[in-house]
Write a structure and sequence with these properties.
About 40% of the residues lie in helices and about 10% in strands. The chain is α/β, with parallel strands linked by helices. It has one domain: 3-Layer(aba) Sandwich (Rossmann fold), CATH 3.40.50.1110. It has a 5-stranded parallel beta sheet with strand order 2-1-3-4-5, sandwiched between helices. Helix 5 links the parallel strand 3 and strand 4. Helix 5 runs parallel beside helix 6. The chain starts with about 20 loop residues before the first helix and ends in a 5-residue tail after the last helix. The relative contact order is 0.15.
Length: about 230
């Protein structure tokens, strides 16, 4: 496994203020404040795939009723999410489930390194939240036609499929089914820019995720501490 300090994708780093408006840190600060006021059963954390979910009906209709918090920041890498969680975004909250979706922005890193970064986050979550289950969403295919980044994301998922069960309370949920058509193309009806999901795309991935979340939330506390299978 590559979830150690020698892996550059597992080194915690705050987001860069490339535009000069300090928006990244402002969003992080808001999340830390939310931790003081909220009592979520489900915590969503990750990059724009998590952040944008909140803009669609599926969040209001499916996930918000589960007492969910959304800690997504567009452009985040595994390094950024790791830093955020180490610096206040897990304080004062005790979610029953954490949904983690990050990694597609780790352009500098190999598939094994990206998977190691995701694993490092999952390890932190299981350590800080020993009574919570961790659901890692698999990276989606990207680009209208087959390309190297699709292959890389698929390889990341393969590593995670092998590594995550060893943590006991974490699993990979692959929500990519149906996005790639028989000719290898992705439809703009599912991903408007061939990366980010449309309302239809979020509906597609929401069904298996919401089913799993409801199953976990309905478990007795002692069952939630049992390993995921």
């Amino acid at each position: 496994m590559s979830g150690d300090g020698m892996n550059p994708a597992a080194v915690a780093q705050p987001g860069e203020d490339v535009r000069g408006d300090d928006r990244w840190m402002s969003q992080h600060t808001r999340f830390v404040q939310e931790c003081k006021d909220a009592e979520p059963d489900v915590l969503f954390v990750g990059d724009s795939m998590i952040q944008l979910m909140q803009q669609y009906e599926v969040w209001r209709e499916v996930f918000s009723p589960l007492h969910a918090l959304n800690f997504g920041i567009g452009g985040d890498t595994t390094c950024n999410v790791l830093w955020r969680l180490q610096n206040g975004e897990l304080q004062n909250i005790h979610p029953k489930v954490v949904v983690l979706w990050v990694g597609t922005n780790n352009y500098e890193h190999t598939a094994e390194q990206v998977a190691g970064g995701i694993l490092a986050i999952a390890q932190l979550l299981t350590s800080r939240l020993p009574n919570a289950k961790v659901v890692v969403l698999g990276l989606l295919p990207r680009g209208e036609q087959p390309n190297p980044l699709r292959q890389k994301n698929a390889a990341v998922n393969d590593f995670l499929r092998s590594w995550l069960p060893r943590l006991g309370q974490a699993l990979l949920l692959d929500v990519s089914g149906g996005f790639v058509h028989s000719d290898g193309a992705i439809s703009p009806q599912d991903m408007f820019d061939f990366l980010h999901l449309t309302s239809t795309g979020y509906r597609t991935m929401a069904k298996p995720l919401s089913d799993l979340l409801r199953q976990i939330l309905n478990e007795a506390p002692e069952d939630r501490r049992a390993p995921l299978v």
